[in-house]
Design brief:
Rhopdopsin 7-helix transmembrane proteins, cell membrane, Chemosensory receptor c, transmembrane, GPCR_Rhodpsn, mainly alpha, transducer
Length: 297
């Protein structure tokens, strides 16, 4: 795959996290569909183990994907805006350290939510057989409320706002780079036309040097975006696309988080309607992220 730089490493971690989220979230979706469409289906175990249990752990990777997307946007934004100050600082080793640290933070952040769920052995009164049941502790509602404030309001909006700001900056830098490259193309074309009109090779050479704005005119200070190589420009474009997908895919969730504060009854059944959105969002972003590293191999 060629994990040669911090961008490909970050995209690789992002794709792994998205696929892990899907791997845990899809069983939950399937179990809920069966519970709704076939309520009399006999399960060999408590269906909530799949319907709720795997879903709880899937959001660990959902959070981590959001953190990685923010990290990707911020790092690339800094490297484009201030390349001399930041580009040499963002090494592969430091990138790996940041990615691992963010995963540990995601785990610690979800530990309180994980702690209120239990697998308990209960007896079925009809069959007199024991089976494992998914239960919650008495602290569930208190812990869940506190967790929702952080994980469904504060952190998502902080991440969302940060990515939006970074995308605006990246788009501006891409626009500057595009204008600069167009000006170089125009200048090169004009020089070629002027050189072809002269019959004397030596005079043509001197005339070309005299008319060359790079050699005769005072050198103007190029902005960082104008100094981007073709490969750097391609990296910025790919990162910008990933961030834009993050913005649009996260927007319904952000709207839901605001509506949840206005209407507390929103969670009673409404979450089932956004299951497909969450799965599609992770699949699209994960697929794009997974294809990202191969572009720079």
């Amino acid at each position: 795959m060629g994990l040669r730089d911090n961008v490909t490493i970050t995209l690789f971690f992002l794709s792994l996290s998205d696929w892990m989220h899907l791997a845990l979230f899809c069983p939950s979706t399937a179990a809920r569909i069966i519970m709704i469409d076939a309520p009399k289906h006999v399960w060999p175990f408590d269906p909530m183990i799949l319907a709720a249990g795997t879903k709880v752990y899937s959001f660990l990777f959902y959070d981590y994907s959001s953190f990685v997307a923010v990290f990707l946007a911020v790092v690339r934004c800094l490297c484009v805006a201030k390349p001399l100050a930041f580009k040499s600082m963002i090494t592969k080793e430091r990138t790996l350290f940041c990615l691992i640290t963010m995963f540990l933070f995601a785990v610690i952040n979800r530990v309180p939510k994980f702690s209120v769920f239990r697998l308990s052995k209960v007896r079925n009164p009809r069959t007199n057989a024991s089976f494992m049941k998914f239960v919650v502790t008495s602290d569930y509602y208190r812990v869940n409320q506190a967790s929702d404030i952080l994980n469904k309001n504060i952190l998502p909006w902080l991440a969302y706002t940060t990515v939006v700001v970074c995308v605006v900056i990246l788009l501006q830098k891409l626009k500057e780079a595009s204008k600069f490259r167009q000006s170089l193309t125009t200048t090169s074309t004009e020089q070629s036309t002027g050189n072809g009109a002269s019959s004397d090779r030596n005079a043509r050479s001197k005339g070309s040097s005299a008319s060359d704005p790079v050699s005769t005119s005072p050198k103007r200070q190029k902005s960082p975006s104008e100094k981007m190589s073709a490969k750097d420009l391609q990296v910025v474009q790919s990162v910008t696309i990933v961030c834009i997908i993050f913005i649009f895919s996260q927007l319904p969730f952000q709207i839901a988080s605001v509506y949840r504060l206005i209407e507390p009854e929103f969670d009673n059944g409404a979450v089932a309607h956004v299951v497909g959105r969450l799965a599609t969002k992770s699949e699209v972003r994960g697929s794009l992220s997974q294809s990202g590293p191969s572009q720079f191999s």
